[in-house]
Amino acid sequence: MKVKYTKTFAKQYDKANIKIQKTFKERLKLFSEDPRSPQLRNHLLKGTYKGYRSINITGDWRAIYREIQKEENDEIYAYFSFLGTHSQLYR
Q1: Confidence (pTM)
Q2: I need a labelling partner for 43 at 20 to 30 A (CA). Which of 21, 53, 56, 58 fits?
Q3: Which residues have CB under 8 Å from 41's CB, separation 6+?
Q4: Domain limits, the chain
Q5: 2-83 to CATH, choices 3.30.2310.20, 3.40.50.2300, 3.90.1680.10, 3.30.565.10
Q6: What does each C-alpha distance from 45 to 17, 21, 66 come to in angstroms?
Q7: What distance lies between CA 76 and its chain's CA centroid?
């Protein structure tokens, strides 16, 4: 699975503190190896984020992404769209 980032995600990542950025990179490596690893607590979302999935970065921080399959080459992309604390994302 290839990973892409939206502009919104990039801005939220840049605003996050260094510890969160470092932890995200570690989780992204794990995600690249096994997107359904139990450590990530990867799950489908509903409501406002219907169609998106969420992974845990820390106990409170989440990264929200959407899986999109490109028909021309059958590759699956993970488009990371949002990054923030649980309360920031799920108001």
Answers
A1: 0.91
A2: 21
A3: 54, 55, 56
A4: 2-83
A5: 3.30.2310.20
A6: 25, 23, 10
A7: 14
